[in-house]
Amino acid sequence: MKKPCFKSLVGIAAIAAIALGLSGAIPAPKYKTVTVNAPFAMEPIKEFIFPNRDFSIANYGAVKGGKTINTKAIAKAIKACNKAGGGRVVIPAGEWLTGPVHLMSNVNLYLSDGAILRFTDNPEDYLPAVMTSWEGMECYNYSPLVYAFDCENVAITGTGTLQPIMDTWRKWFKRPKPHMDALAELYTMASTDVPVEKRQMAKGENNLRPHLIHFNRCKNVLLDQFKIRESPFWTIHLYMCDGGIVRNLDVYAHGHNNDGVDLEMSRNFLIEDCKFDQGDDAVVIKAGRNQDAWRLDTPCENIVIRNCDIIKGHTLLGIGSEMSGGIRNVYMHDCAAPDSVFRLFFAKTNHRRGGFIENIHMENVKAGKMQRVLEIDTDVLYQWRDLVPTYEERITRIDGLYMTNVTCERTEAIYDLKGDAKLPAKNVVIKNVHADEVTKFIKNVHNVENVTEENVTYGRFRNAANAPAYDYSKLQKEKLGRGVVAIRENPAEVAVSWRYLSSDPENTAFNLYRDGKKIAEVPATTGTFYRDAYKGKKAATYTVKPVVNGVETGHIEGNYTLPTKAPIGYIHIPLDRPADGVTPSGQAFTYIPNDASIGDVDGDGEYEIILKWDPSNAHDNAHDGYTGNVLFDCYRLTGERLWRIDMGHNVRAGAHYTQFMVYDFDSDGCAEIIMKTSDGTIDGQGKVIGDAAADYREPGTPANQGRILKGNEYLTVFNGRTGAAMQTIDYVPARGNLADWGDNRANRSDRFLAAVAYLDGIHPSVVMCRGYYTRTVLAAFDWNGKELKQRWIFDSNTPEYKAYAGQGNHNLRVADVDGDGCDEIIYGSCAIDNNGKGLYSTGMGHGDAMHLTKFSPDMPGLQVWDCHENKRDGSSFRDAATGKVLFQVKSGIDVGRCMAADIDPTTPGVEMWSWESKGLRNIKGEVVNPDIKTFSVNMAVWWDGDLLRELLNKNVVSKYDWEAGVCKPLVTFEGVVSNNGTKATPCLQGDILGDWREEVLLRTEDNTALRLYVSPIATDYRFHTFLEDPVYRISIATQNVAYNQPTQPGFYFGPDLKGIFRGYEFKK
């Protein structure tokens, strides 16, 4: 095969060496050799030993300081060095401004420690044009910043830095029409054999950026130790070079097309011990484009890359797509990509390239996250597809790709091999490759022959696009009953509704009975709602029986008794209000019904209410003062109290102290309650936990008074039926040193959150959390009915998770966001994976409100709408699986409230707004309505039976009038009040009973009763109860956590629904 460039260089070098040696003027050059082991024959690489002569640019008129342009002075030093037979051209410590640096043979450009060679960004400084190559096509273009042409024994070494000024080049990153026209012109000239000297591209608005380093047709190249900080185009381009070493480089360049090293039609190179942090690929092996490369007929071959790291970038090892001269014998080993890349090994070409790819090896590589571990793509054309025509079709021959001993944390796919049908790729070997997680597919093979796979494994499969992806055949869920409820709508009518369950066939109808007499046949074509004309004053028992094909099936029947003198519009639940009390400081307090949760404590398929009683002197963590004891009661809907738990005086009262998780954790059909306790807590059977005499309250006068800075903390599981403590263990996360959390007053250390999560995709776990302003710790536990076992603990003090500190909210959300069938915890601006490892952190910090759901049926996976306190990040909409910001409305104030609900049928998906969103926004971030003064931002509820959501604020349900652009009151609940101050939240909001719509639980004004409001509005829609969706059910369980947030499901719900959804078929 012809290698005209290499042969001429070798010949010239040999003749010159003989002549110089005979003359005695200059000693023959000396070399040391580097032997490289590879799975192919590789001749030793010669490393030139430069003569011990230094030529400081300061001695040739260079002036440091970054203001004087030193191009001519540096050129003088280089010329003198070359004329003397070689040596080092020294760039001393300091900043030196220059235009292009053109090296010569036997010259080592030495960057002293502390030296910064700064390159101007004036394109005129890089004229006249020189012979170079632009994306595989030879031309005359602006000079590279460091350039060597037809040189031998040429080097850049030292610990200093090459750092171009980037202002102009960044503007050139864009590709406007004149630039694209210039590329098309160059492509046409190269494709039609226009002589290279006539391809003059450094003109007008062509804006073909120069390389940072471009060595063209050089021999014995050395690049060693120095640092690179940014580059106009490809960073290091070694073009048609023969022999060389690239080692110990620290390359950072995050602009457009900023590859790390591009070896093009070069041979016999070693790249080792380099660090790449790139805006494009790290190491790329190329061999020219189309006709130009066919003309030059010079393959790229015998390349070894070892012990290199890529911190950021697109690809660790790229082959092509400029590869028309052929690429063979490439060996990468013992490298790492610890963070994230697009691909580890990417062979890319297209039907215009021809050439070949053969005998390419990668082994012993460890990596973090990526899209593909190995990929072949034979249809990579990028912008060229439509920009220029195909002058000649040549298919690339691909034969022999070998990947061995490769591991990664996460990848979308392990291998994706897409050969060309006209000439299939062949002989691909993939051995001992493991991915901890795969998120899209395992492998794809198309038009590739003889793929050998051995020990290719993965830990788990997840697909965020399909999230959530629970395996309902394994998921341990509650055993729900029919949830029948009846409320008096008016003196003459009673509204009855019940659950439609996923176990009901779609053609299930229902028979409705009152006091044993059938009063209605409710068909499968309407909602599970019936309005009964019943004027009687006596109690009436309503029974619902499912019917299939005219026959009552006996499958989960249910009943509810409307009480005598039933109130209109709600269920009255009388309470056993605790006695008033007095603190040690003499302050009197009363009790107020606060947050509530639900759980089936007795296994009958219907929920009881777990109610937290807060004393009237409950405090925020920021405030000193004693508080009364926190109490918990369990009530049936009739008002029957089953038990009371007294948390004792060592548990302070306030929104951030006691988060209580009510759920059937051991899947025995009855719910448990898990919460933090302390010495003196009295369970529902009167048994004291720990030391009843212990009193950890600070007696301060008044500083720190009532605060609890020390003492035992416990985690207790209570029996839901009896309130008895079943097991108590030390609380984790432990308090430890108060200062570790941000202060010494237990303000930040006592910020607690909690959650229920299906961390293994089967069993519900409890997750107890501490801290979010600074240190953040989450601990997961499993309850098997006998003992609590710690599953994992996450701590932002762990060095690898320091970015997670300070990211938590006053609430959290739980869902399978990454499609692996297991729940993750969305902890404010960060996410914790189901295995207790960090999933991502956006760095946007703490916030007060957050919403997680599927915002549109057309969007993959789940999304998060969040607001932030940092007076910078405002409100953000992000992908729940990756943290990728989809849009953001920045703000210079503390944005304390945000809301997400599908309230407008004229725009797709769920709408979003916040205090500083500058209006109502759609899923694209577009402002739908700039005026949101009538919009509340506290809670929401599905109330009136259409597919839109209503807003809930205090005791008022409002409806958005999208035509008028305002929210209007729909219903006001009289005689009741909300909780938690300006947050104005109910005791609970959610689908507690009845059909798919939600109920609202509020306390009466005199704090003696709860009222459960049920919608009396008929609806024709019937959907499987949302309670069967883990995301929705857990959002009820976690609603009591700190700053309460409304329920939200793991699916889109709104007017964009179509087809069959949760057992209901929408009409076309």
Model description:
- Helix content is 7%, strand content 40%.
- The protein is mainly beta.
- It has a 29-stranded parallel β-sheet that branches.
- A hairpin with an 8-residue loop joins strand 57 (813-815) and strand 58.
- Residues 570-1058 form the Rhamnogalacturonan lyase family 11 C-terminal domain.
Write a concise synopsis of the structure shown.
InterPro entries: Glyco_hydro_28, Ig-like_fold, Integrin_alpha_N, Pectin_lyas_fold, Pectin_lyase_fold/virulence, RGI_lyase, RGL11, RGL11_C. The protein is mostly beta strands and 1068 residues long.
List the helices and strands and how they pair.
Elements: H1 4-23, E1 31-34, E2 45-48, E3 54-56, H2 71-83, E4 87-91, E5 94-98, E6 101-102, E7 107-111, E8 115-119, E9 130-134, E10 137-141, E11 146-149, E12 152-158, E13 161-164, H3 167-172, H4 177-191, E14 213-216, E15 219-224, E16 227-229, E17 236-239, E18 242-247, E19 250-253, E20 261-264, E21 267-272, E22 275-278, E23 283-286, H5 290-296, E24 300-306, E25 309-312, E26 315-319, E27 327-340, E28 343-348, E29 356-377, H6 384-387, E30 397-418, E31 425-438, E32 443-446, E33 448-461, E34 485-490, E35 493-497, E36 509-514, E37 517-522, E38 529-532, E39 540-548, E40 551-552, E41 558-562, E42 570-574, E43 581-582, E44 588-589, E45 591-599, E46 608-615, E47 631-635, E48 641-646, E49 661-663, E50 672-677, E51 714-719, E52 725-730, E53 752-757, E54 765-770, E55 777-783, E56 788-795, E57 813-815, E58 824-827, E59 830-832, E60 838-841, E61 850-853, E62 863-867, E63 875-879, E64 885-889, E65 898-901, E66 911-914, E67 920-921, E68 927-929, E69 939-941, E70 950-953, E71 956-961, E72 966-972, E73 976-977, E74 988-990, ...
Parallel strand pairs: 3-4, 4-7, 5-8, 6-11, 7-12, 8-13, 11-14, 12-15, 13-16, 14-17, 15-18, 16-19, 17-20, 18-21, 19-22, 20-23, 21-24, 22-25, 23-26, 24-27, 25-27, 26-28, 27-29, 28-29, 29-30, 30-31, 30-32, 31-33
Antiparallel strand pairs: 1-2, 9-10, 34-35, 35-38, 36-37, 36-39, 39-40, 39-41, 42-76, 43-44, 45-46, 46-47, 47-48, 49-50, 50-51, 51-52, 53-54, 54-55, 55-56, 57-58, 58-59, 59-60, 61-62, 62-63, 63-64, 65-66, 67-68, 69-70, 70-71, 71-72, 73-75, 74-75, 75-76, 77-78
